[in-house]
Amino acid sequence: LLAKNATLHRNSVLCRAFRLDVNGTSAESFQQVVDANLQIQTLDGRLFYTCTAPGKEGVGFVAGGMGFWDRIECVVVLSPDLEKILNVQVLDQKETPGLGARIEESWFTRQFEGLKIAWDAPEESRIVIGTSPADNAPNEVDAITGATQTSMALMRFLNAELAQIRELKLETGNGTH
After folding, report:
1. Which helix (H) or strand (E) element contains residue 29?
2. In b/e form, how buried is each residue of 140-171, taking b as 16+ CB within 10 angstroms?
3. What DSSP state is assigned to residue 163?
4. Is the pLDDT of residue 43 over 90?
5. Distance from C-alpha of 165 to C-alpha of 48, rounded to nearest angstrom
6. Tens of pLDDT along 102-137?
7. 27-37 and 2-17 helices cross at what angle (nearest 10)?
Protein backbone atom coordinates (compact mmCIF):
# COMPACT_ATOMS: atom_id res chain seq x y z
CA LEU A 1 0.00 0.00 0.00
CA LEU A 2 2.86 2.37 0.83
CA ALA A 3 4.55 1.63 -2.50
CA LYS A 4 1.29 2.23 -4.38
CA ASN A 5 0.79 5.56 -2.61
CA ALA A 6 4.38 6.59 -3.35
CA THR A 7 3.89 5.78 -7.06
CA LEU A 8 0.60 7.71 -7.12
CA HIS A 9 2.28 10.71 -5.49
CA ARG A 10 5.25 10.63 -7.91
CA ASN A 11 2.94 10.31 -10.92
CA SER A 12 0.71 13.16 -9.74
CA VAL A 13 3.75 15.42 -9.26
CA LEU A 14 5.07 14.44 -12.71
CA CYS A 15 1.69 15.26 -14.28
CA ARG A 16 1.62 18.61 -12.49
CA ALA A 17 5.23 19.39 -13.45
CA PHE A 18 4.63 18.63 -17.13
CA ARG A 19 1.13 20.18 -17.03
CA LEU A 20 -0.52 16.99 -18.22
CA ASP A 21 -4.29 16.70 -17.99
CA VAL A 22 -5.59 13.75 -15.99
CA ASN A 23 -9.19 12.58 -16.03
CA GLY A 24 -9.90 11.31 -12.55
CA THR A 25 -7.92 10.92 -9.38
CA SER A 26 -7.18 7.21 -9.35
CA ALA A 27 -3.69 5.78 -9.43
CA GLU A 28 -4.58 4.14 -12.75
CA SER A 29 -5.59 7.52 -14.27
CA PHE A 30 -2.24 9.09 -13.38
CA GLN A 31 -0.29 6.00 -14.51
CA GLN A 32 -2.03 6.00 -17.91
CA VAL A 33 -1.18 9.68 -18.49
CA VAL A 34 2.46 9.15 -17.46
CA ASP A 35 2.75 6.07 -19.69
CA ALA A 36 1.15 7.82 -22.68
CA ASN A 37 3.10 11.10 -22.49
CA LEU A 38 6.46 10.56 -20.79
CA GLN A 39 9.37 8.57 -22.12
CA ILE A 40 11.67 7.48 -19.31
CA GLN A 41 15.38 6.94 -19.89
CA THR A 42 18.32 6.35 -17.61
CA LEU A 43 21.59 8.23 -18.16
CA ASP A 44 24.49 7.61 -15.80
CA GLY A 45 22.12 6.13 -13.23
CA ARG A 46 19.66 9.09 -13.36
CA LEU A 47 16.09 9.01 -14.60
CA PHE A 48 15.06 11.52 -17.25
CA TYR A 49 11.49 12.10 -18.36
CA THR A 50 10.90 13.39 -21.88
CA CYS A 51 7.42 14.68 -22.56
CA THR A 52 6.06 13.96 -26.02
CA ALA A 53 2.65 15.62 -25.60
CA PRO A 54 2.18 18.30 -28.28
CA GLY A 55 2.77 21.78 -26.85
CA LYS A 56 4.12 20.37 -23.59
CA GLU A 57 7.53 19.18 -24.77
CA GLY A 58 10.29 19.22 -22.20
CA VAL A 59 12.82 17.15 -20.34
CA GLY A 60 12.45 16.54 -16.62
CA PHE A 61 14.43 15.04 -13.81
CA VAL A 62 14.35 14.78 -10.03
CA ALA A 63 16.70 17.22 -8.31
CA GLY A 64 17.45 16.83 -4.66
CA GLY A 65 19.58 18.13 -1.89
CA MET A 66 19.68 19.03 1.76
CA GLY A 67 17.22 21.69 2.84
CA PHE A 68 17.30 23.43 6.21
CA TRP A 69 15.96 20.40 8.14
CA ASP A 70 15.98 17.47 5.76
CA ARG A 71 16.29 16.45 2.13
CA ILE A 72 14.17 18.23 -0.50
CA GLU A 73 13.33 16.62 -3.83
CA CYS A 74 11.79 18.44 -6.78
CA VAL A 75 10.76 17.53 -10.30
CA VAL A 76 12.41 20.07 -12.60
CA VAL A 77 11.22 20.43 -16.19
CA LEU A 78 13.48 22.15 -18.73
CA SER A 79 12.79 23.30 -22.26
CA PRO A 80 14.04 20.82 -24.88
CA ASP A 81 17.02 23.13 -25.62
CA LEU A 82 17.87 23.22 -21.87
CA GLU A 83 17.77 27.06 -21.89
CA LYS A 84 14.77 27.61 -19.60
CA ILE A 85 13.10 26.07 -16.60
CA LEU A 86 9.50 25.34 -17.52
CA ASN A 87 8.36 24.19 -14.10
CA VAL A 88 9.51 23.09 -10.65
CA GLN A 89 7.26 20.99 -8.43
CA VAL A 90 8.19 19.66 -5.00
CA LEU A 91 8.16 15.89 -4.73
CA ASP A 92 9.19 15.65 -1.07
CA GLN A 93 10.17 18.06 1.72
CA LYS A 94 10.08 18.22 5.50
CA GLU A 95 10.74 21.92 6.03
CA THR A 96 9.03 24.01 8.71
CA PRO A 97 5.27 24.40 8.03
CA GLY A 98 4.41 28.02 7.22
CA LEU A 99 8.05 28.85 6.48
CA GLY A 100 10.33 26.61 4.40
CA ALA A 101 7.43 24.31 3.49
CA ARG A 102 6.08 27.21 1.42
CA ILE A 103 8.38 26.01 -1.40
CA GLU A 104 5.41 23.83 -2.39
CA GLU A 105 3.02 26.77 -2.78
CA SER A 106 2.04 27.77 -6.30
CA TRP A 107 3.01 31.46 -5.83
CA PHE A 108 6.59 30.25 -5.28
CA THR A 109 6.80 27.51 -7.93
CA ARG A 110 5.14 29.73 -10.59
CA GLN A 111 8.19 32.00 -10.43
CA PHE A 112 10.26 29.29 -12.12
CA GLU A 113 8.00 29.08 -15.19
CA GLY A 114 10.03 30.31 -18.17
CA LEU A 115 13.02 31.20 -16.00
CA LYS A 116 16.09 31.62 -18.20
CA ILE A 117 19.13 29.71 -16.98
CA ALA A 118 22.23 31.93 -17.06
CA TRP A 119 24.60 29.27 -18.41
CA ASP A 120 27.37 31.86 -18.85
CA ALA A 121 27.26 32.76 -15.13
CA PRO A 122 29.25 30.89 -12.47
CA GLU A 123 27.57 27.60 -11.55
CA GLU A 124 26.33 28.87 -8.17
CA SER A 125 24.40 31.77 -9.76
CA ARG A 126 22.89 30.29 -12.92
CA ILE A 127 19.57 30.65 -11.16
CA VAL A 128 19.22 33.01 -8.22
CA ILE A 129 16.69 32.66 -5.41
CA GLY A 130 16.68 35.95 -3.58
CA THR A 131 18.33 39.18 -4.57
CA SER A 132 20.41 39.22 -7.72
CA PRO A 133 23.16 41.81 -8.27
CA ALA A 134 21.26 42.86 -11.43
CA ASP A 135 17.79 44.39 -11.14
CA ASN A 136 15.06 42.27 -12.75
CA ALA A 137 17.52 39.52 -13.69
CA PRO A 138 15.89 36.94 -16.01
CA ASN A 139 17.31 34.12 -13.86
CA GLU A 140 15.97 35.33 -10.48
CA VAL A 141 13.02 34.33 -8.30
CA ASP A 142 12.00 35.78 -4.94
CA ALA A 143 13.08 33.92 -1.83
CA ILE A 144 10.59 32.93 0.85
CA THR A 145 10.42 35.51 3.62
CA GLY A 146 11.42 33.89 6.91
CA ALA A 147 12.89 30.86 5.16
CA THR A 148 16.22 32.16 3.95
CA GLN A 149 18.07 28.91 4.68
CA THR A 150 15.55 26.79 2.76
CA SER A 151 15.65 29.24 -0.17
CA MET A 152 19.47 29.23 -0.22
CA ALA A 153 19.61 25.43 0.02
CA LEU A 154 17.18 25.09 -2.87
CA MET A 155 19.28 27.49 -4.97
CA ARG A 156 22.49 25.60 -4.16
CA PHE A 157 21.26 22.16 -5.08
CA LEU A 158 19.27 23.29 -8.13
CA ASN A 159 22.34 25.03 -9.58
CA ALA A 160 24.53 21.99 -8.88
CA GLU A 161 21.98 19.62 -10.39
CA LEU A 162 21.46 21.80 -13.48
CA ALA A 163 25.21 21.73 -14.19
CA GLN A 164 25.28 17.92 -13.90
CA ILE A 165 22.19 17.49 -16.06
CA ARG A 166 23.54 19.74 -18.80
CA GLU A 167 26.82 17.80 -18.86
CA LEU A 168 25.00 14.45 -19.00
CA LYS A 169 22.66 15.55 -21.76
CA LEU A 170 25.48 17.05 -23.83
CA GLU A 171 27.86 14.13 -23.31
CA THR A 172 25.26 11.67 -24.56
CA GLY A 173 24.27 13.84 -27.50
CA ASN A 174 20.76 14.39 -26.17
CA GLY A 175 21.11 18.14 -25.73
CA THR A 176 20.78 20.63 -28.57
CA HIS A 177 23.91 22.68 -27.86
Report:
1. helix 27-37
2. bbebbeebebbbebbbebbbebbeebbebbee
3. H
4. no
5. 9
6. 999 999 999 999 999 999 999 999 999 987 666 778
7. 50
Distance, in Å, from the CA atom of 147 to the CA atom of 58, rounded to the nearest integer, reads 30
**Cα–Cα distance measured from residue 165 to residue 177, given in angstroms and rounded to the nearest whole number:** 13
- Looking at the chain, how many residues does it have? 177
What would the pLDDT profile of 70-106 be if each residue is shown by its tens digit? 999 999 999 999 999 999 999 999 999 999 999 999 9
Put the strands of the sheet holding 38-43 in their side by side order. 38-43, 46-51, 58-66, 71-78, 84-92, 115-116
Q: Which helix (H) or strand (E) holds 109?
A: helix 106-109
CA 40 to chain centre: 16
From residue 34, give the alpha-carbon distance in Å to each of 4, 18, 30, 40, 149: 15, 10, 6, 10, 34
pTM confidence score? 0.90
